[in-house]
Design goal:
This protein starts with 10 loop residues before the first strand and ends in a 5-residue tail after the last helix. It is mainly alpha-helical. Helix 6 runs antiparallel to helix 7, helix 10 crosses helix 18 and helix 14 runs parallel beside helix 17. It is globular, with a radius of gyration of 24 Å. The protein contains 19 helices and five strands.
């Protein structure tokens, strides 16, 4: 240390990945804390659920590569794996999915919540409110110290998210609510509740079901990201698990986290035609131009996103069913990817397509609107959030999350009498004559 003090700190080594320096006793030895905005170099927990090797482009769940899981299993199998740590045998899988589907129904009074939202409200705003409201239906008698009750809470959250998402979608479209059916699988029920037409029998192509199944798998868990860390922080206070997941949804809603696939679609719509690709490629390379090539590169993966190749194949499968002529954005995306990967600027910087590059195209192809993209992400990520919460609450000692700060505010001051204080304008709100004008300006009027 600058003052000559020395500290002896243990080195923690996990199953894989870089070792971590245990700094829990650093303050006692040196009187100093560490400073790491965004926790980019800080390990907040021990976990055996998911591991990412960003340098090698690997995503591993409970020891299994995501590529192999997507090839040989399903989303509901992955849910079982993340929660229990092992892949289920056939009989266990059937029991598990039957249990989950049985829990997909929601209380009728909860459905009334949807009527209270403003027409045109963003589905993610609705999801934050409705999932948080679930805690009022499932709070009394819930003991998160009881392993069986924790497990049931996880199953209920995973089960009810597709139903809540589908209701949000259909109420926004002015369509009647559709309830789940026992004879359908988890993913089939999600699509059925969203797209059923009461005027004709419901039918969907198996490749569409499989496409959504794989997309859910690709988004199921991603280590200690922003929303997962939010769930863990909320859970560390022993809060109701439904409220913890609502906090995770709020974090996911941010455009820097869960809105990337929507941004890709907006970018493709802006480019519009293949002949404009060279112009936009040049704009992306110009540091002074605000245009950015969305869907390329990743904060964690320094080489390539292992999920992207899987997503590309799924996209082609969906277009095979729907017809390429119906998807001009796909042709545009394929050409954009080809041009970018032949450009030295992007290759040198290892800016390869990520999972979001094709996800939005698939969603749009099957009729899911852009404002539902992040909701679909939330449905998929619920098993990741709840498995992480389950793991944390299973520990013998739960540490309340309490990050430190580097205080850069005012030193001690003396309170002056109000008559002696200098008049300084700080507010941008109080100068407005009427509060009604403020409400109108921020578009909160009814």
């Amino acid at each position: 240390m600058p003052d000559g003090k020395e500290a002896k700190l243990p080195i923690l080594t996990g199953t894989d990945g870089p070792s971590l320096i245990d700094i829990r006793n650093l303050y006692q030895q040196t009187g100093a804390f560490t400073f790491d905005p965004g926790f980019m170099a800080t390990g907040s927990c021990m976990s055996n659920i998911t591991f990412i090797d960003g340098e090698k482009g690997k995503l591993i769940h409970r020891g299994y590569n995501i590529e192999e899981l997507c090839e040989k299993s399903s989303y509901i199998e992955l849910c079982y794996l993340l929660l229990y740590g092992i892949l289920p045998a056939k009989e266990e899988l059937q029991k598990f999915e039957k249990t989950v589907v049985r829990e997909m129904t929601v209380h009728e009074k909860l459905i009334d919540f949807y009527k209270g939202f403003k027409s045109g409200a963003h589905p993610m705003a609705i999801m934050v409110g409705v999932v948080g409201a679930l805690s009022s239906f499932m709070h009394d008698g819930l003991d998160i110290k009881d392993p069986q009750q924790r497990e049931l809470a996880v199953i209920r959250l995973v089960a009810k998210m597709p139903t809540l998402a589908a209701i949000a979608f259909r109420t926004a479209c002015g369509l009647p609510i559709v309830y789940p059916k026992a004879e359908y699988s988890y993913v089939e029920n999600l699509l059925y509740m969203m797209f059923d037409n009461p005027l004709k029998p419901w039918k969907i192509h198996p490749k569409i079901v499989r496409a959504i199944d794989v997309i859910l798998m690709l988004h199921a868990d991603h280590e200690q990201n922003a929303s997962t860390s939010t769930v863990r922080i909320a859970g560390s206070s022993l809060a109701n698990p439904f409220a913890c997941i609502a906090a995770g949804i709020a974090s996911l809603w941010g455009p820097a986290h869960g809105g990337a696939n929507e941004a890709v679609l907006n970018m493709l719509e802006e480019i519009a035609t293949t002949d404009k690709i060279p112009t936009f490629i040049q704009k992306a390379k110009d540091k002074n131009d605000p245009f950015r090539l969305m869907g390329f590169g990743h904060r964690v993966y320094k080489n390539f996103d292992p999920r992207a190749k899987i997503m590309q194949k799924i996209c082609y499968d969906v277009v095979e069913v729907i017809g390429k002529g119906n998807q001009p954005l796909l042709e545009l995306a394929i050409e954009l990817e080809k041009v970018a990967l032949e450009d030295e600027y992007f290759v040198k910087r290892k800016l390869y397509p990520n999972v979001d590059f094709y996800t939005g195209i698939v969603y749009k192809s099957i009729g899911i609107p852009k404002n539902m993209f992040t909701v679909m992400f939330a449905v998929a990520r619920t098993i990741g959030w709840t498995s992480q919460w389950f793991e944390m609450t299973s520990e013998k000692t739960i540490k309340l999350g309490r990050p430190r700060q580097l205080f850069v505010g005012q030193k001690k001051r003396t309170v002056k009498p109000i008559e002696e204080r200098e008049k300084v304008k700080k507010s941008k709100v109080m100068e407005v004559t009427h509060i009604y004008d403020i409400v109108q300006n921020v578009n909160l009027s009814t």
